[in-house]
Amino acid sequence: MLDLITQYINNPDHHDVLAIVKGFRNGAVYGAKVRFPHALVMSFLFRSGSLEDKLKFVFDATKTHSKNLAKFVTIYKTLMYVQRKIVGKEQNGHSFIAGLIGGYFVFGENNNINQQIVLYVFARIMVGLAKLPVSRKTMEEPKHTFPIFAAVVWGIVMWLFRHDRDVLQPSLQASMQYLYLDSDHWASLKNFLWHNK
């Protein structure tokens, strides 16, 4: 029986469809691997509530991340397969179309998990797009750009926090509150060194 299954999954005629199945599996596993430790640490460091509440948060966050990545990979790979079958070969825009549709249907719901994933990807594609002209040899690599980039990012976030903090993500607001405003207040050695409040 195991030999038949191995023959089936290694048959090149089944490769494209089985790649979608394995993509679903890899999305689910990767989502759990990435989210579980993050949710566990964040829950125990920053969330109040009972142990049961914290574990429920970890489970729910892990399940959502895992499910969404699995769904996205499945939609993306399925649409790539369908487009390739219709046109006869992969075209330049196929990955954009598949990503666009998958992104809309899977990550279009505005919740904390999707926000984190989309913002993570957004930051990395902005860096990638900035490197693209150098990679394609349409321009020379600029020198000393990262310090300027870092300065602009930190200048903007500090200005926004100081003057329009409500537009920032709640977790960023909380971190900045702790770092920059809570450090202005104490009444004893205890809440100066050992405890924040």
From TrEMBL:
State what protein this is by name. Peroxisomal membrane protein 4
The protein's matches in Pfam families, at most eight in alphabetical order, are given as: Tim17 (PF02466)
What InterPro entries does the database record attribute to this sequence?
A: Pmp4
Supply the source organism for this entry: Rhizophagus irregularis (strain DAOM 197198w) (Glomus intraradices)
Q: Which domain of life is it from?
A: Eukaryota
Sorted alphabetically, the Gene Ontology cellular component annotations on this record are:
peroxisomal membrane
